[in-house]
Amino acid sequence: MSEEILLDEKIICEEFDCVWEKPETLTENKMHYCPGCGHGVVHKILMEVIEEMNLQSETIGVAPVGCSVFAYNYMNVDMQGAAHGRAAAVATGIKRMLPNKIVFSYQGDGDLAAIGTAETIHTANRGENILVIFINNAIYGMTGGQMAPTTILGMKTSTTPFGREATSQGFPFKITDLIAQLPATHFVTRQSVHTPNAVRYCKKAIQKAIKYQKENKGYCLIEVVSNCPSGWKMTPLVSNKWMEENMFPQYPIGDLKDNGILITKKEFTK
Ligand SMILES: Cc1ncc(C[n+]2csc(CCOP(=O)(O)OP(=O)(O)O)c2C)c(N)n1
Ligand code: SF4
Ligand SMILES: [Mg+2]
Known about the structure:
By secondary structure, this protein is an alpha/beta fold. The chain has one domain (34-267): Thiamin diphosphate (ThDP)-binding fold, Pyr/PP domains (Rossmann fold). Helices cover 34% and strands 22% of the residues. It is built from ten helices and twelve strands. The strands form three sheets. An eight-stranded mixed β-sheet has the order 4-3-5-6-10-9-11-12, with helices on both faces. The chain is globular, with a radius of gyration of 19 Å. The mean pLDDT is 94. Bound molecules: thiamine diphosphate, iron/sulfur cluster (SF4) and magnesium ion. Iron/sulfur cluster binds next to helix 9.
């Protein structure tokens, strides 16, 4: 606070130091996400990068079906909705028609790694010059917490009330690792947004991916290992701790591939 005046014994603040500002690239609409959910944080840093790189009028995003279905109400850039799982195919079409635009898809794990597996893999395999943002919260958040392909073993969901087990439900699907192996992919990384430091790293990854797209380097994927306090039936704080202890060993944070070169296991941490 830089200046104060006293009036009727109440302190009225005349001026404030700005400690937080919403970027122009986010609309005024209130987000519908549950308290503590990672979706809102990723929206914010993605839109901050677009604003900081002066790309608001050059960017087209593709919203999925899932909790982030209304991403187009929050992101103040041109947006297109896609049918469930098809965001990468829609983004491909947009980028091919408008190659000078910055194009991203924003997808959950159910959207990207279940119903949209084919579109996801083939878009990556063609090395389309787009950015895919993949929010992995290990659950179908929007529809009531059913098991997703990325649900970890032993994790209870509404469709695995006794915990996921490999014999009947298969193993957690590490689609990001698979995509990193494809020769046409350029930058593949796994991030999180559960601490201020993690947010900074994730934002840097977004900046790098957008820069790569401007340079026509090709396909970039940023997986964000995220929480779903409602679906996991935990408080936001407990969900973040649970994520660190249970999700990160399965989905280690760090770059898997950069500049088209796979990163060896030894280096595969920040
Ligand atoms: C064709 C079709 N099948 C199924 C659904 C139901 N459905 C809506 S969202 C969703 C999964 C969402 O999970 P995810 O992509 O992980 O997003 P989250 O809500 O967790 O962010 C499903 C199965 C649908 N809308 N359309
Ligand atoms: S259900 Fe889960 S993913 Fe959806 S808004 Fe709530 S916390 Fe976020
Ligand atoms: Mg999900």
